[in-house]
Amino acid sequence: MTGFRVAREEACAQSSPASSRRSGPPSPVTCPPGHRTATPLGCHRRRVPDRLCFSGILTRLVTGCSWHVAAYLTGGVSETTLRARRTEWLAAGVFDKLLAEALAAYDRIIGLNLADVAVDGSLHKAPCGGEGTGPNPTDRGKLGWKWSIATERWGIPIGWTIAGANRHDAVLLEPTLQAVLDNGLLAEVGTVHLDRGYDSPATLQRATELGVGDINCAKKRPPGSSKTKTKTKLKLGLRWPVERTNSWFTNFGQLRRNTDRYEHQRLGQIALAVALILTVKLTKWAKRWNT
Asked: Residue 218 CB: number of other CB atoms within 10 A?
């Protein structure tokens, strides 16, 4: 075996040229004459257009697919670039500014009807966990998240907050109304319509302290009262606009089954979804006279 190893080493030494052996440090790589070294952002690749990245982010929001699939469906962009651009835009507040512009345009062209405002929450899946998630009591304790949203008379969202799926709707009423106040719309609200889940003195007192003058809340059943065996129709009153808005939100795959791990990412998804809803409303309004 020793003679075989010596013969193999001699054959390898004879087959490899002497110039391939490194006797010192490697020589520096030099660019050919006329090569352009000044490139955008100091890199050797052009920046992917923002329009293409925005299309990829919208694809993921609407379909609920992964970043990898969103990059494949978009074409010409990688999933790493989509993630990085989303992080960059969240830090710059791009989605919030887009939402503010869309909401101001809707209020100027069509007008917000704040005479009747409805508030309600909705539970959804969050299989990846992260901030703002908790066990979903309606899904066998699996991880989920919840949004609490306030809408005007025709279902346009005017304020919202998010929390874990195990948070009660009554706890989220105050931060939801606070979001409406931050948008400068709470002073114009007439009546706030709530379901029986909000029927508690402490919750209604907090809403009154924020400046809500009129609250129409469904009453809970008295303790010990038996439910009737005959089915009766559920009277939503003026709470049906928020129920319809929850249905609009669940049409977005990433809101129905969210895979983000941080609250600011989920808030960015909601802001982009609301901006898209407002854009569709304005487009339909512009074409209202077309057959």
From this structure: 15
**Per-residue pLDDT for 100 more than 80?**
yes
Taking Cα atoms as reference points, which of 123, 120, 145 lies closest to residue 132? Answer: 145
- How far is residue 73's CA from residue 68's CA, in Å, rounded to a whole number? 9
> Does the pTM exceed 0.70?
yes
With residues binned 3-state (H G I as helix, E B as strand, rest as coil), the percentages for the chain, rounded to 5, are 50, 15, 40
User: Which among 181, 184, 286, 193 is positioned nearest to 240, based on CA atoms?
Assistant: 193
Instruction: Using alpha carbons, select from 125, 105, 95 the residue that is nearest to residue 252.
Output: 125
pLDDT tens-digit series, residues 4-63 = 454 555 655 554 444 444 455 555 545 555 555 555 555 567 889 999 999 999 999 999
Give the chain's end-to-end CA distance (angstroms, integer).
91
Q: 190: which residues sit within 8 A by CB, 6+ positions away?
A: 114, 115, 116, 117, 213, 214
Distance CA 17, CA 20 (A): 6
Buried residues in 172-204 as b, exposed as e (16+ CB within 10 A): bbbebbebbbeeebbeebebbbbbebbeeeebb
